[in-house]
Amino acid sequence: MAVAGLSAFRVAGGESTPAGFEAAGSIEIIDQLLLPHATRWETVATIDEAFDAIKTMKIRGAPAIASLAALGIASELLVLLTHKPAASFPLSTLSSPAAFLTHLLTRTAYLLTSRPTAVNLLEALTRIETAARKAVDEGATAEQVARRVIDVAVQVWSEDKERNKRIGDNGASWILEKLEREGTIKQGDKICVLTVCNTGSLATSGYGTALGVIASLQEQGRLEHAYYAQTGPYQQGARLTSMELASLGTNNTMVCDTAIGALIAEKRVHLFVAGADRIAANGDTANKISTYQISLLCSSPHPFSPNPPIPVLIAAPITTLDLNMTSGRSIVIEQRPSWEACTVRGRVVDVDAMARSGGVVDETAQNVDVQTVLVTPPNTRAWNPAFDVTPASLIAGIVTEVGVATRVATGEYDLKSFVAKGGN
């Protein structure tokens, strides 16, 4: 089940396939800063346009970021192979394989600075660089090296769509089997799930990671209710996950970020599932800010809570695993500008009319006014990290397209062995 009508990418005038992309020579992205109140598609045909979209968070989500960076490179090289200069690849870069490789490496290094925490971006760019170097070593011409890079870059995008469905199904099967085995639920019972940020089709190349687990549960008729955190300051849950869960036809409720503890104390929650931007070899996981504190609350529910400790499941592709990083202590956490935490963007509404209607807003209104407003005193300084690190000890499982990793005797993960064995 795809999330109907919602996608981070599309190919203008064609199918969203590798062949469609090559025919168009560019990709379109939906400006997620305007959602859910306005829909605007923007063409990305250059590396600079990809960088800007990633940096300003018009597109976000580690898998989607990696795909867009790769497609930005591919778009320019498709132009270059027609023997016309591209935006950042002059014709001189085709003078020799070495000249092409040198210039390519400056562009991949530039793209890597757009969102440094997301390891998928590093993995995608490293994969492109490795393919180029191998082609040069094999004696390929500059044009052949460029063609090889295009093929690999497009694969970054297309493969993400295929593996996300497997992640969702693997995660759903794992949590249902675990809860039934432990006696937490009876066979066939539906479950209630909590998630954070946005991890669906808008954050990936299709289907989603953590939201893919929820989608799979919904497909199987095993989802009772989905709760999602508001996820300030960018409100990804409020703006984006709300749309995706509605499109899936789920019973769902947004929870204020400061009310997660109260939710766990009062409502039945069987699972907290989150995505990831980088996972260290021991399982420490960097994800959207607040993932750590929600995981802590899940590990120690309120004495009056109907919940035992709630399992935390991290959903991410293998490309999110940074096996060269021994622990989360080394993860570089991106710091967002202070002003982002001091402002909010949304649709201008008539508050008095909303009060009279009980909060009902006309969904059919055209040409809605979307504005950004300051909610703090002028010049307030805010500490605004984009991510936090959840220690492996709080995570019950890490679901990937090749299976679910669980903790070893040390209380952490051995993800190197998990990957070497091809998962489980």
Description of the structure:
The chain is α/β, with parallel strands linked by helices and 424 residues long. 40% of the residues lie in helices and 15% in strands. It has helices at 18-24, 47-55, 62-80, 97-112, 119-137, 142-182, 210-219, 236-248, 260-266, 291-299, 338-342, 351-357, 415-420, and strands spanning 9-10, 27-30, 41-44, 191-195, 223-229, 252-255, 271-274, 278-280, 285-288, 312-315, 321-322, 343-347, 370-374, 387-390, 397-400, 403-405. The protein has a 7-stranded mixed β-sheet. It has a 4-stranded mixed β-sheet with strand order 11-8-9-14, covered by helices on one side. Strand 15 and strand 16 form a beta hairpin. Helix 4 (97-112) packs antiparallel against helix 5 and helix 4 packs parallel to helix 6 (142-182). It is globular, with a radius of gyration of 22 Å.
